[in-house]
TrEMBL record:
It comes from Moorena producens 3L. Gene3D superfamilies: Leucine Dehydrogenase, chain A, domain 1, NAD(P)-binding Rossmann-like Domain. The gene is folD. GO terms for biological process: L-histidine biosynthetic process; methionine biosynthetic process; purine nucleotide biosynthetic process; tetrahydrofolate interconversion. Catalyzes the oxidation of 5,10-methylenetetrahydrofolate to 5,10-methenyltetrahydrofolate and then the hydrolysis of 5,10-methenyltetrahydrofolate to 10-formyltetrahydrofolate. Homodimer. This is Bifunctional protein FolD. NADP(+) binds at residues 165-167, 231.
Length: 287
């Protein structure tokens, strides 16, 4: 029987630990850790993510300094806001919620965030630290996946691992983290030929391409560990909206040893690692 990798339960456990840590830090340093989540426009999915992050901050005891900007906000105004937050001693983490409206340069804005306040781990300095194996803030979704595997005591050393997706958000940093854990890693993507032939070799398969139910049971090795990063909102014939992952859950769970659900798998772990990064940044400032 397939075991569910329950990210929701593990994330709650982590948040409880972080809440206890935050209480001790406040007594010692006289202020809570602070996180600023910046959102531009009215993307419904982004708005839901931001609400989840702000609620999680409140539960743990992290102060929120986020701002919601209208869609027509200029690049200059956002740069000025980020620079102000870089200087704000109450703020330990800054996150720019993606995607942004087309007229904004997301890469330039991400680079504007100070590396030590880069709560999403996407600044080139932090990605370079990951590449070198140096300590630093790690990209939240990959870090959440690694923590989830660790919590379920899934051995990675020597395991054949296929990551489907090469984004800077998930695929590339996750591949580096898996290599650091001594897994043997292959990265596949939209132009990979005969994807199923490759994924069927994987002891651990990660789907992170944003294509609903791309991975079907005939593409999965029996007994594999399957991590579904996809969150795809689709509508049925009655126009009812629902979330689907990149994995065809119903069929794949019949043969996988472990599998993450959507929702309730990787998503909550991403938020937990965002909180963890904020507290890491806070503690570093006082060390």
């Amino acid at each position: 029987m397939t075991n569910i990798l329950d990210g929701k339960t593990i994330a709650k456990k982590i948040q409880t630990q972080l809440q206890e840590q935050t209480q001790k830090l406040m007594l010692k340093h006289g202020r809570p850790p602070g996180l600023a989540v910046l959102m531009v426009g009215d993307n419904p999915a982004s708005a839901a993510y931001v609400r989840n992050k702000e609620r999680a901050c409140a539960k743990v005891g992290i102060a929120s300094f986020g701002r919601h900007f209208p869609s027509n906000t200029s690049q200059t105004e956002l740069e000025e806001t980020i620079n102000s937050l870089n200087q704000d001693q109450r703020v330990d983490g800054i996150l720019l919620q993606l995607p942004l409206p087309d007229h904004l340069d997301a890469v330039s804005l991400l680079h504007q965030i100070h590396p030590d306040k880069d709560a999403d781990g996407l600044h080139p300095v932090n990605l370079g630290r990951l590449l070198r194996g140096d300590p630093g803030l790690r990209s939240c979704t990959p870090a959440g996946i690694m923590r989830l595997l660790q919590e379920y005591q899934i051995n990675l050393s020597g395991q054949k691992t296929v990551v489907v997706g090469r984004s800077i958000l998930v695929g590339k940093p996750l591949a580096l983290m898996l290599l650091e854990a001594n897994a043997t890693v292959t990265i596949a993507h939209s132009r990979t030929q005969d994807l199923g032939e490759l994924t069927r070799r994987a002891d651990i398969l990660v789907a992170a391409v944003g294509r609903p139910q791309l991975i079907t049971s005939d593409m999965v090795k029996p007994g594999a560990v399957v991590i579904d990063v996809g969150i795809n909102r689709v509508s049925d014939q009655q126009e009812k909206s629902r979330l689907l992952g990149d994995v065809h859950f119903d069929s794949v769970q019949e043969i996988a040893r472990y599998i993450t659900p959507v929702p309730g798998g990787v998503g909550p772990m991403t938020v937990a690692m965002l909180l963890n990064n904020t507290i890491l940044s806070y503690t570093k400032r006082y060390s």
